[in-house]
Amino acid sequence: MIYLGNYGDWVDDNKLIEYMDTHEGVMSPRDQNHENDVKNVLHETSWNSYTSECTIQYNDTEYLPLELPDVKTDYYWLNKMLPGMCMPWHRDSNSDTVKVRYWMPLQDYEPGHIFICKHELMVNYKKGDLFKHEDPSQYHLAGNLGWINRYTLNLVEFK
């Protein structure tokens, strides 16, 4: 992961956490169609085999456009993970169409909030820190084994 800078004031201005706490998202992967997803190479299973709610996603068109200064993006989604939720080791199914992928925590690091990309555990980050994936098709996982909700923003630029 490549650190690009901090956008903490921008996060506050857009009230992203407030939005997620007042709107219903989509339980993922349970409520999404994953028929064409690439199988998880490590376990030869598809997302259809995961029965739990891994994350709550928000990609509501009424909240678009979401413009981040100095960063070109074509698509974004917000994630809320309640305590106990986890997203197993995976690659995103659209990684072959993504040119650049970014990850931004929407709160300061909390013990139990987990994000691992490739072999790097992300800790001690601050709200609004923006990271660029070195490779958009990298394996990664996320989880919330802490006490409070975990909020993140993912952004992509397509090829």
Question: Could you explain the architecture of this structure?
Answer:
By secondary structure, this protein is mainly β. It has one domain: Jelly Rolls (Sandwich). Helix content is 9%, strand content 36%. It has helices at residues 8-14, 16-22; strands spanning 2-6, 26-28, 55-58, 75-81, 86-90, 98-105, 113-117, 120-121, 129-132, 140-144, 150-158. The strands form 2 sheets. Strands 1-9-6-11-4-3-2 form a 7-stranded antiparallel sheet, with helices on one face. The chain has a 4-stranded antiparallel sheet with strand order 5-10-7-8, with no helix packed on it. The longest helix has 7 residues, at 8-14. It is globular. 25% of the residues are buried.
- The CATH homologous superfamily corresponds to q2cbj1_9rhob like domain
Please bin the fraction of helical residues: under 10%
Q: Which oligomeric state applies? A: single chain
> β content, as a range?
35-45%
Mean pLDDT: 80
Task: Count all strands and give the number.
Answer: 11
Which strand order does the major sheet show? 1-9-6-11-4-3-2
Largest sheet: 7 strands, antiparallel
Instruction: Indicate the CATH topology.
Output: Jelly Rolls
Instruction: Using the coordinates above, name the CATH class.
Output: Mainly Beta
Number of helices: 2
- Unreliable stretches (pLDDT < 50, length at least 5) are 31-48
**Which structural class is indicated by helix and strand composition?**
mainly beta
Outline type: globular
Give the CATH architecture: Sandwich
The arrangement of helices and strands along the chain is: EHHEEEEEEEEEE
Distance between the termini: 20 Å
* Number of domain modules: 1
